Amino acid sequence: MIEIENLTKHYDSQSALDKININIKKGEMAFVTGPSGAGKTTLFKLLYLYEKPDAGSITIAGFNTSSMKESLIPMLRRNIGVVFQDFRLLPNKTVFENIALALRIRGAQEKTIKDKVANVLKMVNLRHKADKYPLTLSGGEQQRITIARAIVGDPTVMLADEPTGNLDIDNEDIVMKIFKEINAKGTTVLIATHNIRLYKNSGRRVFFLENGKLVDEVVG
Ligand SMILES: Nc1ncnc2c1ncn2[C@@H]1O[C@H](COP(=O)(O)OP(=O)(O)O)[C@@H](O)[C@H]1O
Ligand SMILES: [Mg+2]
């Protein structure tokens, strides 16, 4: 589902990723970890085609990103749900509209939008917040809304970069439960985190990055 081969990325003279090889199977849930500056976010930016690698290749959700036309990027992104720290909720739109936007762009019918948004809001246990504005919600609630937005289009792959970054332990557990649920329904999930709690005793593969290199792979 995600094939990463010899992936390399530099920023000026700084090496952010150095010949990374990782293979994530369809339906797998796995983690990428390592200290700050290890290259986790860079890896996720490359996977979402937010930035281009200097060398190596990525195949994700059936697309070989090195050879595909740029015009196909939006189509690829429809198959990928993302929770990134810099993809914030729009403050001037309600929770419902924030989530609905991804479906509206694709020209979905109003009835479908209503059903799907209600469904994902139920999954993250925030159905009663549909008409609220994001900034009136707690940090944990906002993060659950970003996850609802990421899953509303039924992505085949979910990429989450530090999804529990600013959350307390209760919200951490809620967020992880949601990822496990969508994974159980068939979505391939890749999570970047420096938080050992997320992958400890998970039984999932954990890839360790350090200075842009893949230094270890263990089962958490
Ligand atoms: N846009 C950028 N410009 C210059 N250097 C960057 C940029 N993004 C990341 N880096 C550098 O690349 C390395 C990896 O960063 P990053 O992928 O954000 O690590 P992590 O997410 O593991 O903390 C760091 O040394 C960082 O300073
Ligand atoms: Mg990061």
What CATH architecture label of the domain at 1-79 and 157-163 and 187-220 applies? 3-Layer(aba) Sandwich
Looking at the chains present, what oligomeric state does this protein adopt? Answer: single chain
CATH topology of the domain at 1-79 and 157-163 and 187-220: Rossmann fold
User: Which sheet architecture does the biggest sheet show?
Assistant: 6 strands, mixed
| Topology as a string of helices (H) and strands (E) | EEEHEEHEHHHEHEHEE
CATH superfamily of the domain at 1-79 and 157-163 and 187-220: P-loop containing nucleotide triphosphate hydrolases
* Helical stretch tally: 7
Helix-and-strand structural type: alpha/beta
**Uncertain segments:** none
| Principal-axis shape | globular
Helix content: 25-40%
Straight-line N-to-C gap: 21 Å
Radius of gyration: 17 Å
How many beta-strand elements? Answer: 10
What spatial order of strands do you see in the largest sheet? 6-7-8-3-9-10
Bound ions, cofactors and other small molecules, one mention each: adenosine-5'-diphosphate, magnesium ion
Strand content: 25-35%
Mean pLDDT: 95
